[in-house]
Amino acid sequence: xxxxxxxxxxxxxxxxxxxxxxxxxxxxxxxxxxxxxxxxxxxxxxxxxxxxxxxxxxxxxxxxxxxxxxxxxxxxxxxxxxxxxxxxxxxxxxxxxxxxxxxxxxxxxxxxxxxxxxxxxxxxxxxxxxxxxxxxxxxxxxxxxxxxxxxxxxxxxxxxxxxxxxxxxxxxxxxxxxxxxxxxxxxxxxxxxxxxxxxxxxxxxxxxxxxxxxxxxxxxxxxxxxxxxxxxxxxxxxxxxxxxxxxxxxxxxxxxxxxxxxxxxxxxxxxxxxxxxxxxxxxxxxxxxxxxxxxxxxxxxxxxxxxxxxxxxxxxxxxxxxxxxxxxxxxxxxxx
Length: 336
Known about the structure:
Helix content: 25-40%
Shape: elongated
CATH class of the domain at 213-331: Mainly Beta
Strand content: 15-25%
Radius of gyration: 38 Å
Number of helices: 10
CATH topology of the domain at 213-331: Glucose Permease (Domain IIA)
Structural class: alpha+beta
Low-confidence stretches: 1-8, 12-51, 56-73, 128-163, 178-184
Protein backbone atom coordinates (compact mmCIF):
# COMPACT_ATOMS: atom_id res chain seq x y z
CA UNK A 1 0.00 0.00 0.00
CA UNK A 2 1.26 3.59 -0.62
CA UNK A 3 2.78 5.37 2.37
CA UNK A 4 0.05 8.05 2.62
CA UNK A 5 -2.82 8.82 4.99
CA UNK A 6 -2.78 7.45 8.52
CA UNK A 7 -1.44 4.05 7.71
CA UNK A 8 1.36 2.99 10.14
CA UNK A 9 3.71 0.09 10.32
CA UNK A 10 2.67 -2.32 13.14
CA UNK A 11 4.99 -2.17 16.13
CA UNK A 12 7.00 -5.28 16.91
CA UNK A 13 7.98 -6.30 20.37
CA UNK A 14 11.56 -5.76 21.58
CA UNK A 15 11.96 -9.54 21.71
CA UNK A 16 11.00 -9.87 18.03
CA UNK A 17 13.42 -7.11 17.04
CA UNK A 18 16.16 -8.88 18.95
CA UNK A 19 15.52 -12.16 17.14
CA UNK A 20 15.50 -10.32 13.78
CA UNK A 21 18.88 -8.74 14.47
CA UNK A 22 20.37 -12.01 15.63
CA UNK A 23 19.22 -13.77 12.47
CA UNK A 24 21.23 -11.49 10.18
CA UNK A 25 24.60 -12.48 11.54
CA UNK A 26 27.08 -11.23 14.09
CA UNK A 27 27.87 -8.03 12.28
CA UNK A 28 24.32 -6.74 12.69
CA UNK A 29 24.55 -7.01 16.49
CA UNK A 30 27.17 -4.22 16.56
CA UNK A 31 24.58 -1.67 15.32
CA UNK A 32 21.89 -0.27 17.64
CA UNK A 33 18.44 -1.25 16.44
CA UNK A 34 17.38 2.42 16.57
CA UNK A 35 20.10 3.22 13.97
CA UNK A 36 18.27 1.20 11.34
CA UNK A 37 15.07 3.15 11.92
CA UNK A 38 17.05 6.41 11.64
CA UNK A 39 18.44 5.34 8.30
CA UNK A 40 14.93 4.68 6.97
CA UNK A 41 13.84 8.14 8.09
CA UNK A 42 16.86 9.90 6.53
CA UNK A 43 16.27 8.50 3.02
CA UNK A 44 12.96 10.34 2.36
CA UNK A 45 14.40 13.58 3.73
CA UNK A 46 17.36 13.45 1.32
CA UNK A 47 15.19 12.85 -1.78
CA UNK A 48 13.66 16.38 -2.02
CA UNK A 49 17.11 17.96 -1.65
CA UNK A 50 18.49 15.81 -4.47
CA UNK A 51 15.50 16.72 -6.69
CA UNK A 52 16.03 20.43 -6.03
CA UNK A 53 19.72 20.12 -6.96
CA UNK A 54 18.83 18.31 -10.20
CA UNK A 55 16.24 20.98 -11.12
CA UNK A 56 18.76 23.76 -10.46
CA UNK A 57 21.34 22.09 -12.69
CA UNK A 58 18.78 21.74 -15.50
CA UNK A 59 17.82 25.44 -15.27
CA UNK A 60 21.49 26.47 -15.31
CA UNK A 61 22.16 24.29 -18.35
CA UNK A 62 19.14 25.70 -20.23
CA UNK A 63 20.07 29.35 -19.61
CA UNK A 64 23.09 29.50 -22.04
CA UNK A 65 21.00 27.86 -24.78
CA UNK A 66 18.26 30.48 -24.38
CA UNK A 67 20.83 33.29 -24.37
CA UNK A 68 22.33 32.17 -27.68
CA UNK A 69 18.97 32.01 -29.49
CA UNK A 70 18.82 35.75 -30.42
CA UNK A 71 22.43 35.64 -31.63
CA UNK A 72 21.61 32.74 -33.94
CA UNK A 73 18.58 34.62 -35.30
CA UNK A 74 20.72 37.62 -36.11
CA UNK A 75 23.14 35.48 -38.13
CA UNK A 76 20.58 34.99 -40.92
CA UNK A 77 18.52 37.28 -43.14
CA UNK A 78 15.27 36.53 -44.98
CA UNK A 79 15.00 38.08 -48.46
CA UNK A 80 12.06 40.43 -49.10
CA UNK A 81 10.78 41.76 -52.47
CA UNK A 82 13.16 44.31 -54.02
CA UNK A 83 16.29 43.04 -52.19
CA UNK A 84 19.66 42.59 -53.83
CA UNK A 85 22.85 41.09 -52.40
CA UNK A 86 24.82 44.34 -52.47
CA UNK A 87 22.30 46.23 -50.31
CA UNK A 88 21.90 43.31 -47.89
CA UNK A 89 25.68 43.09 -47.48
CA UNK A 90 25.95 46.86 -46.88
CA UNK A 91 23.08 47.04 -44.36
CA UNK A 92 24.41 44.11 -42.32
CA UNK A 93 28.13 45.06 -42.64
CA UNK A 94 29.17 41.78 -44.27
CA UNK A 95 32.96 41.70 -44.52
CA UNK A 96 33.87 41.16 -48.17
CA UNK A 97 30.66 42.73 -49.53
CA UNK A 98 28.09 41.06 -51.75
CA UNK A 99 30.74 38.79 -53.30
CA UNK A 100 31.45 37.19 -49.88
CA UNK A 101 27.71 37.01 -49.10
CA UNK A 102 27.11 35.25 -52.41
CA UNK A 103 30.03 32.85 -51.90
CA UNK A 104 28.73 31.87 -48.45
CA UNK A 105 25.22 31.25 -49.78
CA UNK A 106 25.96 29.94 -53.29
CA UNK A 107 24.22 26.61 -52.63
CA UNK A 108 21.01 28.41 -51.65
CA UNK A 109 21.13 31.21 -54.27
CA UNK A 110 22.30 29.16 -57.26
CA UNK A 111 24.53 30.06 -60.17
CA UNK A 112 23.21 33.61 -60.67
CA UNK A 113 23.71 36.06 -57.76
CA UNK A 114 20.98 38.35 -59.07
CA UNK A 115 18.23 35.74 -58.82
CA UNK A 116 17.32 35.90 -55.14
CA UNK A 117 13.65 35.35 -54.34
CA UNK A 118 11.55 36.56 -51.39
CA UNK A 119 11.59 34.11 -48.49
CA UNK A 120 15.14 32.88 -49.19
CA UNK A 121 17.22 32.66 -45.97
CA UNK A 122 20.81 33.91 -46.24
CA UNK A 123 23.63 33.30 -43.77
CA UNK A 124 25.31 36.59 -42.81
CA UNK A 125 28.23 34.87 -41.06
CA UNK A 126 29.17 32.15 -43.53
CA UNK A 127 28.21 29.49 -40.99
CA UNK A 128 25.08 28.09 -42.65
CA UNK A 129 24.35 24.62 -41.28
CA UNK A 130 24.80 21.95 -43.93
CA UNK A 131 22.06 19.33 -44.09
CA UNK A 132 22.87 16.25 -42.03
CA UNK A 133 23.96 13.28 -44.14
CA UNK A 134 22.19 9.93 -43.78
CA UNK A 135 25.36 8.47 -42.28
CA UNK A 136 25.50 11.24 -39.69
CA UNK A 137 21.81 10.76 -38.90
CA UNK A 138 22.30 7.02 -38.38
CA UNK A 139 25.33 7.66 -36.18
CA UNK A 140 23.35 10.14 -34.07
CA UNK A 141 20.51 7.63 -33.69
CA UNK A 142 22.99 4.94 -32.69
CA UNK A 143 24.50 7.23 -30.05
CA UNK A 144 21.04 7.98 -28.62
CA UNK A 145 20.17 4.28 -28.58
CA UNK A 146 23.44 3.47 -26.81
CA UNK A 147 22.81 6.17 -24.21
CA UNK A 148 19.31 4.80 -23.58
CA UNK A 149 20.62 1.27 -23.08
CA UNK A 150 23.19 2.46 -20.55
CA UNK A 151 20.58 4.46 -18.64
CA UNK A 152 18.27 1.44 -18.49
CA UNK A 153 21.04 -0.81 -17.20
CA UNK A 154 22.09 1.71 -14.55
CA UNK A 155 18.57 2.20 -13.24
CA UNK A 156 17.97 -1.52 -12.74
CA UNK A 157 15.05 -1.54 -15.18
CA UNK A 158 16.03 -4.97 -16.44
CA UNK A 159 17.02 -3.88 -20.00
CA UNK A 160 18.98 -6.68 -21.61
CA UNK A 161 22.29 -5.56 -23.16
CA UNK A 162 22.68 -6.21 -26.89
CA UNK A 163 25.39 -8.69 -27.90
CA UNK A 164 28.68 -6.97 -28.70
CA UNK A 165 29.16 -8.88 -31.94
CA UNK A 166 26.49 -9.50 -34.59
CA UNK A 167 26.08 -13.04 -35.89
CA UNK A 168 28.26 -13.96 -38.84
CA UNK A 169 25.23 -14.37 -41.13
CA UNK A 170 24.06 -10.81 -40.39
CA UNK A 171 27.53 -9.43 -41.12
CA UNK A 172 27.61 -11.24 -44.46
CA UNK A 173 24.16 -9.88 -45.46
CA UNK A 174 25.07 -6.30 -44.48
CA UNK A 175 28.31 -6.28 -46.48
CA UNK A 176 26.73 -6.23 -50.00
CA UNK A 177 24.37 -3.37 -48.99
CA UNK A 178 27.28 -1.25 -47.73
CA UNK A 179 29.24 -1.96 -50.90
CA UNK A 180 26.29 -1.00 -53.13
CA UNK A 181 25.75 2.31 -51.28
CA UNK A 182 29.46 3.16 -51.60
CA UNK A 183 29.41 2.35 -55.31
CA UNK A 184 26.30 4.50 -55.91
CA UNK A 185 27.76 7.74 -54.52
CA UNK A 186 30.45 8.43 -57.23
CA UNK A 187 27.80 8.00 -59.97
CA UNK A 188 26.27 11.41 -59.13
CA UNK A 189 29.59 13.25 -59.47
CA UNK A 190 29.64 13.60 -63.32
CA UNK A 191 26.13 15.13 -63.35
CA UNK A 192 27.11 17.69 -60.70
CA UNK A 193 30.32 18.52 -62.57
CA UNK A 194 28.39 18.99 -65.82
CA UNK A 195 25.89 21.31 -64.14
CA UNK A 196 28.67 23.37 -62.59
CA UNK A 197 30.44 23.61 -65.95
CA UNK A 198 27.20 24.75 -67.64
CA UNK A 199 26.71 27.50 -65.05
CA UNK A 200 30.32 28.64 -65.42
CA UNK A 201 30.02 28.73 -69.24
CA UNK A 202 26.78 30.74 -69.27
CA UNK A 203 27.35 34.49 -69.84
CA UNK A 204 26.57 36.72 -66.90
CA UNK A 205 25.99 39.82 -69.11
CA UNK A 206 25.05 40.41 -72.76
CA UNK A 207 24.31 43.34 -75.09
CA UNK A 208 20.69 44.60 -75.05
CA UNK A 209 20.44 44.38 -78.87
CA UNK A 210 22.78 43.34 -81.67
CA UNK A 211 23.13 46.62 -83.56
CA UNK A 212 25.49 49.48 -84.30
CA UNK A 213 25.77 52.46 -81.93
CA UNK A 214 24.63 55.74 -83.48
CA UNK A 215 25.02 58.18 -80.56
CA UNK A 216 27.85 57.58 -78.04
CA UNK A 217 27.90 58.26 -74.31
CA UNK A 218 28.67 61.83 -73.13
CA UNK A 219 28.23 63.43 -76.54
CA UNK A 220 27.61 67.12 -75.84
CA UNK A 221 24.71 69.10 -77.23
CA UNK A 222 21.84 71.45 -76.37
CA UNK A 223 19.22 68.89 -77.36
CA UNK A 224 19.78 67.12 -74.01
CA UNK A 225 18.68 68.77 -70.78
CA UNK A 226 21.87 67.66 -68.99
CA UNK A 227 24.05 69.11 -71.75
CA UNK A 228 25.29 65.70 -72.86
CA UNK A 229 23.99 62.29 -73.91
CA UNK A 230 23.50 60.17 -70.75
CA UNK A 231 23.58 56.79 -72.52
CA UNK A 232 24.18 55.16 -75.89
CA UNK A 233 21.73 54.75 -78.78
CA UNK A 234 21.51 51.50 -80.74
CA UNK A 235 20.21 51.69 -84.32
CA UNK A 236 17.24 49.31 -84.40
CA UNK A 237 13.84 49.54 -86.02
CA UNK A 238 10.52 49.37 -84.22
CA UNK A 239 9.65 45.91 -82.88
CA UNK A 240 13.18 44.61 -82.24
CA UNK A 241 13.45 42.40 -79.14
CA UNK A 242 15.30 44.13 -76.28
CA UNK A 243 17.12 41.89 -73.80
CA UNK A 244 18.06 42.38 -70.13
CA UNK A 245 21.84 42.80 -70.10
CA UNK A 246 22.07 40.90 -66.82
CA UNK A 247 19.89 39.12 -64.31
CA UNK A 248 18.14 41.27 -61.74
CA UNK A 249 14.88 42.75 -60.49
CA UNK A 250 12.67 45.15 -62.44
CA UNK A 251 12.25 48.30 -60.33
CA UNK A 252 10.09 50.20 -62.83
CA UNK A 253 8.34 49.49 -66.13
CA UNK A 254 6.06 52.03 -67.78
CA UNK A 255 5.78 55.55 -69.12
CA UNK A 256 8.68 57.87 -68.21
CA UNK A 257 8.07 61.19 -70.03
CA UNK A 258 10.95 62.01 -72.38
CA UNK A 259 12.11 58.38 -72.32
CA UNK A 260 8.68 57.12 -73.40
CA UNK A 261 8.11 53.54 -72.33
CA UNK A 262 11.12 52.46 -70.28
CA UNK A 263 12.32 49.56 -68.11
CA UNK A 264 14.83 49.87 -65.26
CA UNK A 265 16.49 46.76 -63.78
CA UNK A 266 18.56 46.54 -60.61
CA UNK A 267 21.49 44.07 -60.73
CA UNK A 268 23.32 42.19 -57.97
CA UNK A 269 26.27 44.60 -57.94
CA UNK A 270 23.97 47.56 -57.15
CA UNK A 271 24.02 49.05 -60.68
CA UNK A 272 20.86 49.79 -62.72
CA UNK A 273 20.31 49.31 -66.46
CA UNK A 274 17.76 51.51 -68.27
CA UNK A 275 16.06 50.88 -71.63
CA UNK A 276 14.14 53.77 -73.24
CA UNK A 277 11.73 54.60 -76.12
CA UNK A 278 10.23 51.06 -76.15
CA UNK A 279 7.13 50.39 -78.24
CA UNK A 280 5.87 47.70 -75.82
CA UNK A 281 6.83 46.16 -72.46
CA UNK A 282 7.08 42.46 -71.53
CA UNK A 283 7.85 42.83 -67.79
CA UNK A 284 6.44 44.62 -64.76
CA UNK A 285 7.86 46.17 -61.58
CA UNK A 286 8.98 43.65 -58.98
CA UNK A 287 9.56 40.88 -61.52
CA UNK A 288 12.83 38.92 -61.53
CA UNK A 289 14.48 38.56 -64.94
CA UNK A 290 17.26 36.34 -66.26
CA UNK A 291 20.25 37.47 -68.29
CA UNK A 292 19.18 37.85 -71.94
CA UNK A 293 15.44 37.72 -71.18
CA UNK A 294 13.24 39.78 -73.52
CA UNK A 295 11.87 42.76 -71.57
CA UNK A 296 10.15 44.60 -74.44
CA UNK A 297 10.29 45.77 -78.05
CA UNK A 298 12.18 48.78 -79.39
CA UNK A 299 10.32 51.82 -80.69
CA UNK A 300 10.23 55.63 -80.82
CA UNK A 301 8.06 56.65 -77.85
CA UNK A 302 8.74 59.83 -75.86
CA UNK A 303 11.15 62.51 -77.11
CA UNK A 304 12.64 60.60 -80.03
CA UNK A 305 13.58 61.54 -83.59
CA UNK A 306 13.11 57.95 -84.84
CA UNK A 307 13.15 54.27 -83.82
CA UNK A 308 16.16 53.29 -81.70
CA UNK A 309 17.05 51.92 -78.26
CA UNK A 310 18.37 54.34 -75.66
CA UNK A 311 20.45 52.39 -73.09
CA UNK A 312 22.00 53.58 -69.82
CA UNK A 313 23.86 52.20 -66.80
CA UNK A 314 23.27 54.09 -63.54
CA UNK A 315 24.46 54.02 -59.93
CA UNK A 316 20.85 54.58 -58.86
CA UNK A 317 17.42 54.26 -60.45
CA UNK A 318 16.98 57.97 -61.31
CA UNK A 319 18.04 60.27 -64.11
CA UNK A 320 21.43 61.98 -63.58
CA UNK A 321 23.16 58.96 -62.01
CA UNK A 322 24.62 57.66 -65.27
CA UNK A 323 28.02 56.02 -65.86
CA UNK A 324 29.68 54.87 -69.11
CA UNK A 325 27.47 51.94 -70.23
CA UNK A 326 29.96 50.43 -72.68
CA UNK A 327 32.79 50.48 -70.13
CA UNK A 328 30.47 48.71 -67.68
CA UNK A 329 29.55 45.97 -70.16
CA UNK A 330 33.19 45.46 -71.17
CA UNK A 331 34.16 45.07 -67.50
CA UNK A 332 31.56 42.28 -67.35
CA UNK A 333 33.21 40.48 -70.28
CA UNK A 334 30.85 41.67 -73.03
CA UNK A 335 32.44 42.33 -76.43
CA UNK A 336 30.82 45.60 -77.49
